[in-house]
Amino acid sequence: MSDRPPLPRRASLEVLRAEASDELSVLIEERIRDGEDPWDFMEDLPSVDELVVLTLRAENIAADGGNRPTAARNYRVLRQISLDYPALTRAVWRLLGSEPHRTWDASVRVEAS
Q1: CA 6 to CA 109: how far, in whole Å?
Q2: Helix locations, the chain, DSSP H
Q3: Quick one: which of 14, 47, 3 has its CA closest to 28?
Q4: Residues 3-32 pLDDT 10s
Q5: Is the pTM higher than 0.70?
Q6: Is the pLDDT of residue 113 over 50?
Q7: Do 32 and 38 form a contact (C-beta atoms < 8 A)?
């Protein structure tokens, strides 16, 4: 049994980074429009590469029927992302060891309150 469900081949890393950069810009603009001070939230936002890793991880989870991965499977998925995209290795290592969370997402912040 493999930890890699069949996924459609993704675009190049440059395209993934461009998409993540656009998404990050939208998150920043949304929070500024909600009246938040960028000095208060910028450090909480993921980097572009971390956002790419989280997106690839989410696609893997969706391809597995949306089942939340165990810690061991999460490690293998993130490690495989690192192997598939060596330029993302630093971002993968920053995300390993803890369950990635979305403190930058307003819907998650509301649920956590």
Answers
A1: 32
A2: 13-33, 38-41, 48-63, 71-84, 89-95, 106-112
A3: 47
A4: 555 555 567 999 999 999 999 999 999 999
A5: yes
A6: no
A7: yes
